[in-house]
Amino acid sequence: MATPGIQRISKEQQLFPYQDLNPSLHSTVFLAPGVKIIGDVQIGKYSSVWYNSVIRGDVHYIKIGDHTNIQDCSMLHVTNSKFPINIGSKVTVAHSVKLHGCTLKDLSFIGIGAILLDGSVVEENAMVAAGAVVPPGFVVPSGKLAAGVPAKIIRDLTKSEIADIGVNAKRYTEYSRITVESLSEINLNEKDKLTF
Fold first, then answer.
1. What is the torsion angle, in degrees rounded to the nearest 10, for the CA atoms of residue 141, residue 66, residue 134 and residue 58?
2. In terms of C-beta density within 10 A (0-12 exposed, 13-18 middle, 19 or more buried), how is residue 152 classed?
3. Rounded distance, CA 29 to CA 26, Å?
4. Any residues with CB less than 8 A from the CB of 159 and at least 6 apart, and which?
5. What angle do CA 20, 47, 94 make, to 5 degrees?
């Protein structure tokens, strides 16, 4: 059932069906140990999902683009037949983020521990601050920073902050490569070693 060639360090079960729906991951996707991906989930080229994250596409779909990173202990879920999750390319979802039925466009950044609720949208080159709670239907416009509980637009992003969103995505693609090389040396026979 696993998509052939996925970059996995662990031999644990990580991909699970939901009824007749199975995850579909590009062969260059990196999955860290502890990751669980369920149901109608698509993940694009060179994206990564880090330790103990859960992506549950059971009652609606989840699509994740290329060069996107879902960091440690994040949780992604959907609302039955109403709100899927759409995540673009070169997106960073930082540690312990909760995404529920939302849309993150290309080159967006979600800070540590943020929560995004049904129907919320983060546009391209926009950022959600650590710990923010983005309410249902809220839109974070391009070039803006949203913060607070509930989240509000607090200021424009600087040119440097916008540029760093793409740099961060590239950095995580490299972290994936280094992690595969580092961890494949541990407790694996030569024939089982992974390449990136």
1. 140
2. middle
3. 6
4. none
5. 105
Using the Cα atoms of residue 174, residue 67, residue 16 and residue 36 in order, give the sign of their dihedral.
Answer: positive
Question: Is residue 175 within 8 Å of 9, Cβ to Cβ?
Answer: no
Query: Taken in order 184, 28, 103, 63, is the CA torsion positive or negative?
Result: negative
- Provide the H-helix boundaries in the chain: 159-183
Q: Is 70 exposed, middle or buried (0-12, 13-18, 19+ CB in 10 A)?
A: buried
Q: Model pTM?
A: 0.91
The SS3 call for residue 177 is helix
d(CA 100, CA 95): 15
Q: Residue 68: name the closest of 40, 32, 29 by CA.
A: 29
Whether the CB-CB separation of 90 and 193 falls below 8 Å is answered with no
In the chain the domains, ranked by start, together with CATH numbers, are 7-192 (2.160.10.10)
pLDDT tens by residue, 69-118: 999 999 999 999 999 999 999 999 999 999 999 999 999 999 999 999 99
Exposed, middle or buried by CB within 10 Å (0-12, 13-18, 19+), for 114?
buried
- 6 vs 73 pLDDT, higher one: 73
Decide if 48 contacts 26 (C-beta within 8 A): no
Find the length of the chain: 196
